[in-house]
Structures are given as C-alpha cells and as structure tokens.
Design goal:
With about 270 residues, this protein is of the alpha/beta class. It is built from eleven helices and seven strands. Helix content is about 35%, strand content about 20%.
C-alpha cells in the first residue's frame, strides 16, 4: 500500500477515476512527462496517417488527456463528460452526426471502456462514409501483456469472457482491457459477420515496454526521458517476436460499401 502510494503520480493521487478532475489532471501528466508525451506522439502519428483525405469531419472519442488535434487539423474532440478544451460531449453509443458525414473516428485507449461495442459499431456504420476509417490504439493480449494487465494494472482484464458487454457504471473505472483482442482476434469471424460494412485493414501489435516504463497517466516515470531512444531500439529488436511481447495494438478498420448500398446508389 505504501509502495503504491509512493509510485502513484502526485497529480492523480487519491482522485476518483470517474471524476472529470482526474482526466484534467491526467492531461497535465501527459504534458509534464517527456517520455510519455513521445509515446503519444508516436500513436498520434499512426492515427493521423490512417485517416483518409477528402470530405468529411474526423471525430475523436475520449479526447480527455490527449492532444491529437495537433496532428489532425479540424479534429472534433469529444468525451463522455464535459471537459475544458473538449468541443463536444459524445456517448459512443449515440453519436450526434449526420449519416455518412465522417471520414474517420479516432481514439486512444477508449474502445475497451465502451460497455456496448456493438452499439458503437452500429453508430459508426451510420456516421462514417464509405472509405472512411475507425483508427484506434488499444491494449492487446499477448503472453507478456496478460501478466502485466492481470497483476500490475488497475483496470479489469478478462480475456476469457464470452460477452462483449459489461455494466459500464463508471466511464473510466469500468472496462475490459482484453476487449479489443476479443473482438478483432478471438471473435474476428463474429465481428465480420455482424458488421460486414467494416473491413479490418490492419492490426499492428506494438510497445512491449515503453508505456509500462513511462508509468502511464497515473504513475511516476520509472526511467528518465533520455532513455527513450534506447528502449525504442530494444523494442525494434523484438519485432520478430512482437506477438509474444506486445502490450498495445494500432487497429484500423475501413468502411466498405456493401452491395446493397451500391445498388441504392445506382437506382
């Protein structure tokens, strides 16, 4: 208990996970920790590269502590709760956007907090135009991450559950960190059957150590910022075995036009 208190970042110590104040403090943590900020920059570069050019807005879900708007011009930031500097309050199960009006939905560590991902995908199917994307960075299951998320992380991590849903009483405290792996890997056939309008363009497992060493948004850094390049090189050496070591994955889905949609367009 004493060790956990010592390792907890002083800005977030003792705060309720579901309080808006916690997210505001975490935003400051991301800005104040150079090692962690570089991780976010890498993630944001990947998300921005996945978004197609052309017409339509890009909506970010769970903007919270981040700064993705620096990488995607005109980004519509949103969160489940009102927060300073965030444009909209949006529940991912009920997105207030016109049909086919978005060219992308992007998010960082958000999907595994959604209590009903099927409803989210239904809404995204309505809002994202053909050729548009959902691009996300999410926790990922591997033999290494199973140990870390099960024993060293505060969020629930339940890879063996059958359900994609969970109660969702707390927007940040309720989660299943294994959910992205469940939906896109274990139950991939179910996802493709239930949501044929989405093609899984890529799943890129990544980052075995750096986020852990950074302390994330709630802990102190475990290594100095100047070692970032060294740890990145170490992870590059592990690339042939990344499926064993990955703690995260960059996942990109592409909205495809179904045959029925094409037929309507031609009518």
């Amino acid at each position: 208990m004493i060790l956990a208190r010592l390792l907890t970042h002083p800005l977030t110590r003792g705060l309720d996970l579901d309080s808006p104040a916690t997210t505001v403090r975490r935003r400051q943590v991301v800005r104040d920790k150079p090692f962690l900020r570089r991780i976010y920059r890498e993630w944001y570069t990947s998300l921005a590269a996945a978004v197609p050019a052309g017409e339509g807005d890009v909506l970010e879900l769970g903007s919270g502590p981040g700064f993705l708007q620096e990488y995607i011009p005109g980004l519509i930031t949103s969160d489940i709760m009102p927060l300073p500097g965030v444009l909209r309050v949006v529940d991912a199960r009920r997105i207030d956007c016109a049909p086919a009006s978005l060219r992308g939905i992007v998010m960082t560590n958000v999907l595994h907090h959604l209590p009903d991902v099927s409803q989210f995908f239904a809404e995204a199917s309505r809002c994202v135009r053909p050729g548009g994307v959902i691009a996300m960075v999410e926790p990922w299951l591997s033999p290494w991450s199973r140990i870390i998320y099960r024993w060293l992380h505060h969020e629930p991590f339940v890879p063996d559950t059958i359900a994609w849903e969970f109660p969702g009483d707390g927007p940040l405290s309720d989660a299943n960190g294994a959910l992205p792996w469940i939906v896109f890997q274990r139950d991939r056939a179910r996802f493709q059957r239930d949501f044929p309008g989405w093609a899984i363009r890529s799943i890129t497992p990544c980052m075995p150590f750096r986020y852990l060493l950074s302390g994330g948004v709630s802990m102190r850094s475990f290594v100095p910022a100047f070692t970032y390049g060294f740890w990145k090189t170490c992870e590059a050496w592990l690339k042939p075995w990344i499926n064993f070591w990955a703690m995260f994955a960059v996942i990109v889905l592409e909205r495809v036009a179904l045959q029925v949609e094409k037929s309507k367009a031609c009518a």
